[in-house]
Amino acid sequence: SIPRWADEGAAVFNEGDWEHSHQTKMFKQFVDNKQHLDTKLMLPSIDYPKPPHIIYAQGYVMTDYLVKRGGKRIFIKFLEDGPKGWDVALKKHYGIKDAATLHTAYLPKK
Fold first, then answer.
1. For 80-95, how does the pLDDT look when each residue is reduced to its tens digit (9 = 90+)?
2. Does pTM surpass 0.90?
3. Quick one: CA dihedral 19, 68, 31, 51, positive or negative?
4. SS3 content of the chain, % helix, strand, coil (to 5)
5. Sign of the C-alpha dihedral, residues 23, 20, 15, 11?
């Protein structure tokens, strides 16, 4: 099954500009309040976190970052390979060392 962040992130990704802007602002608030999720724990999870609305914002921002970096095809291949090892899949498809490096990459810049 597809990880929850990718499922919800892709759904928001296919919405319009208003929803993109809204979720990006929400994610910045979660980061500012230190409520965002650890990417390493989020990558394989198929469950909704508590509170669940975090996954829409953070899932969208991470999906947007990855799709802009490699395109939709690479994103799908990454999701297919991820369950075998998320850090290996990040390195293979994006040249990103590990989940911690990805986490830092897509966080809002101050």
1. 999 999 999 999 999 9
2. yes
3. positive
4. 70, 0, 30
5. negative
